Structures are given as C-alpha cells and as structure tokens.
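Hi R.,

Here's the chain you asked about this morning:
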Amino acid sequence: MPTTKWILPEGIEDILPEQAYWLEMKRREVIDIFISSGYGLIIPPLLEYTDSLEKNASEDLNLQTFKLIDQDTGKQLGIRADITSQISRIYSTYNDTNINRYCYFDHVVRAKTISSKKSRIPIQAGAELIGSKEVESDAELAILMLNVLKKFTNKKIFLDLGHVGVFKKLMKYANLENNQEKLIKNLIRSKSSSEIKNYLKDLDIKDSLKECFKSFPKMHGSVKEIEKYLDQLKSFDNNIENDIKYMKKFSDVIAQSHADVEIKYDFCELKGFDYESDIIFSAYIESDSEEVAIGGRYDIDSSTISGIGFSIDIRYLLKNQFLSKPLKKLVNKSGKWLVEDYNEQ
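And here is the predicted structure, written out as tokens:
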C-alpha cells in the first residue's frame, strides 16, 4: 500500500471516482442537449502553435497561456487557456457556410490562478454560434446556456447583462493609452467609486467623460436604471442608445424561455478575455458571488464575421454545493466500485 502523499500545485486537483462518475453522466446529458439544439461537437487539440492559438488574442489570454517549444520543429506551442479562439480557427479553416454552430465539453489550462475558488484546469462546457448578427441568435446562445446550467443545479440563477461595446466607444472617445484604459476597466470591474474618482482626478480627459466613468458603478439593475444615464452616455456616441435597445430586446427574448431567471443589467460586467466586442453576460447561482458561466459576442479575424458563445465552469460547479442530486451514485465496497440508486443504503 502506498504511503507517500504527494502535493499537487495550487489550483490543480484530482477528480475521484464518485465525482468522475457524476461528471460523465452529466457530460452525456449536456452533449445531447447541444446536439439536439443543432450544435456540432468538436474536440480541438489541447496544444497548438501559439501563432494560431493567440491570433488576435487579448493580453490577458496571452498571459494565461502556457508556452513550450516543439521538439520537432523548434516552434513555440501553447496549451489552450480558452476554446473560443480554437473555434474561431476551426470556423475560418473548415467552414463552408456563413452560419455555423459548435459545442464542446473539455479541459483548458490556465497559467495563473484567477480566483482562490477557481481551478487552473477548468472543465468547460460551451457553445458558439458564428456568422449571425440577429438578436434572436444571441438570445439563443444565452437560452442554451441556461438550459445546460439547469441540468446541474436546482438553485435560483441570476443573469447579469453588460455591453463591452459601450465601454469601448467611451474609450475611443477618451483616446487614452492602453495602460490607462486597462486600469480604468479594472476599477470599473471592482465598482469602487472612490478609486475611480481618485484616478480620474488627474487624467487629461473632459470633465463630462470623467463624470460618465464615475457613474458606471451606479449603472446596474433594471433597464430603467440604465436609461437614467442614457443622455450622458449617448452624448459621446449616439450608437450607445442602439446598444441599450439591443440589450433590452435580448433580455426580453431570454425571459420568455426562462421566466424564473432574474435578469439584471450591469455595465461593470466587463469579464472574460477581452476579445469580446459587444454584448456580454454572466450567470450566478444563489448564495454565491462567483460567476459559473460567462458569454459574449466577439469579432473573428477583425472581419465582418462575428460570433457569440458561452462557457460554463463545470469543475467549479463540481467543487461547490450547487449540484442537484443524481439518480445514481458510485460507491466503494471492499475495493470494488458499484453503481447504486442515490437513496440506496
């Protein structure tokens, strides 16, 4: 019998038989939902050349990507930190139609710990719809995300809607350096009004724009709360009014399918890997402050083609007490693993 107890790196953990059995059962359910909804399952490679893995990628995605050298070619390889970039490559390489749908259920690897509660080797279930710009298509993705999430938990789900495009329009107007833009974005994410105010004090931008950035932590709640700041926002770009109308229609379509999900607007929701360019959304489960799923719209190869997708952090759900009880469980009896009904003693 082994006596050595090895220590794994922080944020990296095993999945033991009881949880692995539950995970496999759920994986089959989720993939069936994806396929029945018209999404094709793909299994991209865990690593590939960084020039394709990180093409048009954001700085934060680059920092989260493990790098190594291919012993055969001497070229740099990357271990994927996100699957959306791989789906963009697959669409660009193999697609022969304007609109396509893909899904996945697989691991990614992160170079850094994002949160003490999150794994560095998340298991993600997700889907992408590429080639459509219709609000119904965007809502289709969010509805699918909620359908899948409800397979894992019976607890109340909250959906927060944001819009990166609004923030980017203001940044374009401000014409700031990249490091300044990044800092303002992080301050807005933290919703710290005092820190935003202190940083903006000595920044060389118009006072009206400073006031707009100071208002961001208040831009959350119902659409009526957002509309209070509409005149302030559209004074810098008239298209922002259309962005908010789009968000409202987006949420209305989702509410028709998921009336039990509480939908809120939050313009401080600027999460993800910074490649998003438009509407974004995050899902939360009752009594927990960490998002369990994120999604949003993005551009492909800086062209006229765009996509929208989401990913659910399955490993985070597995580690926390959000899960609905399974019908079957795996138990160890005298060194032999057996499947039993959940209520069986």
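One quick note: The mean pLDDT is 87.

Cheers,
M.
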